[in-house]
Design a protein that fits this description.
The complex is a heterodimer. By secondary structure, chain A is α+β, with helices and mostly antiparallel strands. Chain A contains 2 helices and 6 strands, in the order H-E-E-E-E-E-H-E. By secondary structure, chain B is an alpha+beta fold. Classes of the chains: A alpha+beta, B alpha+beta. Chains A and B meet through strand 1, strand 3, strand 4 and helix 2 of A and strand 5, strand 6, strand 7, strand 8 and strand 9 of B. Strand 3 of chain A pairs parallel with strand 9 of chain B.
């Protein structure tokens, strides 16, 4: 296992579109181990994508289980992931190992369905929501050369968000 | 260490202000740091960190022609600050209430009493002009639990102010 170097902005390689994985072999699985060790070595990252360490293949890792009180599938390795269904949207704050010292608000789908392969090549079908769905969308963006800074919305946009107010009589 | 000045500009809004001001700063050899511009009540307002070049000694002279052309008021302060000093908010507070004096003071007073540090605050008056509604969005940092913060603002419901406290989970990926 090894901690790999993480590419950071403005490295143009982060803009590359990654290729699908075709060989589900021991080399791929050893890389996934290194990728996860790299994720865990960073500042509390809940996900990482292969292109962030300069390997331009469609592999992401997501694990939001360390966040308290959040529903999740636990540790997920998604190879060649494809989102097949989006539902709802919400704004949340994001940062990135590849964009140090910056966080911003991003709109993501609230619920998604996706298909993927596991590291052995077996098929995966998943449904997820909220923070985990956000993490997966953030990581899949990396596979298409997109960073969250490409999607940041104004802080003021949040004023337009509607939700049920839990405190007080709600005079409006 | 870079010496920064905080440049504040206020004036009637029109297209091209940012372009003209930053062009004058650029030609005077100044660098920009963090900046925040927003239109408030039809006014152009911006605060930006400026360093180097003509800054701060000759900055008034550099900006005088642009300020005169665009009708901007200029204010400059030397600040003890720098880049890369971000604090990431962990709590969001949304406030809605029939507009009246004192809402901000009451909400922020309750939050300050439990050590809440406001990092971003934006407010607006919405609704029908005859029945204006005050809307405020705050993001900040607090070591207190969400429950403790809810407790701190609980009394405001009786004053006709709806206050929603929610965690901000920053996703790092």
């Amino acid at each position: 296992m090894a901690i790999l170097d993480v590419l950071t902005l403005p490295d143009p390689r982060l803009r590359q579109v990654s290729h699908p994985v075709t060989r589900f072999d021991d080399e791929l699985r050893a890389f996934v181990d290194d990728l996860d060790e790299t994720r865990r070595a960073g500042p509390a990252a809940v996900g990482i994508a292969a292109p962030q360490v300069g390997r331009f293949q469609r592999v992401v890792i997501v694990d939001v289980s360390a966040k308290k009180g959040i529903a999740s599938h636990g540790f997920l390795v998604l190879v060649n992931p494809e989102i097949t269904h989006w539902d709802g949207f919400e704004i949340g704050r994001e940062g990135c190992l590849s964009v140090p010292d910056y966080t911003g608000n991003v709109i993501r789908a609230t619920r998604i369905r996706l298909i993927a392969r596991d590291p052995l090549g077996g098929p995966l079908q998943l449904e997820m929501e909220a923070f985990e769905a956000r993490a997966v969308q953030h990581e899949i963006d990396h596979l298409d050369g997109l960073l969250f800074v490409d999607r940041v919305v104004s802080r003021r946009t949040d004023l337009f968000r509607r939700k049920v107010y839990q405190t007080g009589p709600g005079p409006v | 260490m870079t010496e920064w000045s905080m440049l504040t500009l206020v004036g009637g809004d029109r297209p091209g202000i940012v372009a003209k001001v930053t062009d004058a700063l650029y030609k005077a050899g100044c660098s920009l740091g963090e900046a925040s511009m927003i239109r408030l009540g039809g006014n152009f307002t911006i605060m930006m960190m400026v360093s180097g070049g003509a800054c701060p000694r000759d900055l008034d002279g550099v900006l005088a022609p642009v300020a005169a052309e665009l009708g901007l008021r200029v204010h400059l302060d030397s600040v003890d600050g720098g880049l890369h000093r971000h604090l990431t908010p962990n709590v969001q507070v949304r406030v809605v209430g029939a507009d009246r004096a004192g809402i901000v003071a009451q909400v922020t007073g309750a939050l300050a009493a439990v050590g809440f540090n406001i990092l971003e605050l934006e407010s607006d008056v919405a609704g029908d002009p005859r029945r204006p509604v005050y809307i405020m969005s705050i993001q900040g940092y607090s070591d207190a639990t969400i429950e403790a913060l809810e407790q701190a603002v609980a009394g405001l419901g009786a004053a006709g102010i709806a206050v929603d406290v929610a965690p901000v989970e920053t996703l790092i990926g």
